[in-house]
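Ticket 4471: requesting a sanity check on a complex prediction with nicotinamide-adenine-dinucleotide. Repro inputs:
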Amino acid sequence: MKFDLAVLPGDGVGPEIIDEAIKVLLATGQKFKQTFNLRYGLVGGVAIDQAGNPLPPKTLKLCQTSDAVLLGAVGGPKWDDPRARTRPEDGLLTLRKKLGLFANLRPVKVFPALVDASSLKPKLIEGVDFIFIRELTGGIYFGRPKREWQTPQGRRAVDSMTYTEAEIERILRVGFELARTRRHKLVSVDKANVLQTSRLWRQIATEIAPQYPDVELEHILVDACAMWLMLNPARFDVIVTENMFGDILTDESSILGGSMGMLASASLAGIPREETRTLGMYEPIHGSAPQIAGLNIANPIATILSAAMMLRYSLGLTKEARVIERAVEKVLDEGYRTSDIMGEGKTKVGTKEMGNLIAGKVGG
Ligand code: NAD
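Returned structure tokens:
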């Protein structure tokens, strides 16, 4: 089959890590006789420099007419002037909004070979393998009214947490569907003891649960969830939650997976199902790491794993995705490490070498 992919390398380490992910994708395509038609576009700082806009209309069109989007990272000191009219990150936010990417997925998996690289005790993180789903386009970050004003007693400010039934239901369904493809356990996180939006969230989760009899649904309050993530993270399979809770808990969870250079993400515009294609944008969770750009030391694994997620969730190529994930695991098992995950007695390799090793395992 042939797939159109929008490839947006962006800034800093973006182009280097994207090169390695493409190398691995092409090796996968060759092995499984799939054709990936790569369509490169500008986004972020480089797009400001070359087109005066962090998301040029041409890039948006490219993404809208592709099967999926693979992105590196955007931003850097060159575009940090607070007086600037536009910033690289605006390109990313607009892209998410225009593509209707309402579900943000972040897998948190501790590779056995990296258990000792974590700042947490090995016995705590052994076997951790869960996926976080954060609602991305609603809740308190977007609710109205949102403003600050002067009163006789001093300044006041308000943010509004609002959710519609449709918004809650579609993200919960992503959770149920994903749980079906994994270990059939879904944790729905809310603050139903205090918040009205959370009470509605919990009610809807409970209402639709009977449609997924093979999935075990558990409700956990957000504060308790923050504790469980540090106390027993291996208990989780799929976690679904609203925008702000997800923002905080996904950052907390990211430390379980070790380096920023290891963590992939997907932002989806629909429920991923094998029989349908879901538009999605795939990117590492880290930024453009400008201090290490161009030095061939950035870890490309987060981007390579993001490409694997793209195969699974947007292109329906589950077998191919698994082969990439296994290739990463094998290379780590053999002791190869970029400097961010380097450990005693391991073999240090650069960005390109890590990409070559993983592509070699895919093809081999
Ligand atoms: P960062 O994620 O770029 O870097 C944080 C730390 O992690 C740094 O020490 C960096 O060297 C290291 N790191 C990141 N990716 C790595 C990799 N692949 N391999 C090895 N080490 C890696 O965050 P920051 O320094 O706060 O931000 C730098 C720029 O990136 C800023 O302009 C910021 O706005 C932007 N940013 C972009 C995104 C995005 O594109 N999605 C996300 C976050 C930050």
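Notes from triage: The CA atoms of residues 108 and 232 lie 13 Å apart. Leaving this open until the requester confirms.
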